[in-house]
UniProtKB/TrEMBL annotation:
Signal peptide: none annotated. Keywords: Oxidoreductase. Pfam families: adh_short. PANTHER family: SHORT CHAIN DEHYDROGENASE (PTHR43976), SHORT-CHAIN DEHYDROGENASE_REDUCTASE FAMILY PROTEIN (PTHR43976:SF16). It comes from Anaeromyces robustus. One of its GO terms (molecular function) is oxidoreductase activity. The keyword GTP-binding does not apply. This is NAD(P)-binding protein. Belongs to the short-chain dehydrogenases/reductases (SDR) family.
Length: 62
């Protein structure tokens, strides 16, 4: 499963719900980081970090 692909995430959640009936606990066990100085950071890498580390968790909970 590609955690950056919203369709993959929704499909995995649906398969899990279909198999077990419900999801009681969600643990965010993935995350990425780009090691760089503030001067080296760019919008694309920062957005990717937020998409995976923050918004993925929100998507799974909603």
């Amino acid at each position: 499963m590609n955690v950056k692909d919203e369709t993959d995430v929704k499909c995995a959640l649906e398969e899990t719900t279909n198999k077990f009936g419900r999801i009681d606990v969600v643990i965010n066990n993935d995350g990425i980081t780009h090691f760089s100085t503030i001067e080296e950071m760019n919008d694309a890498s920062t957005r990717e970090e937020f998409d995976v580390n923050i918004f993925l968790s929100i998507e799974c909970y909603s």
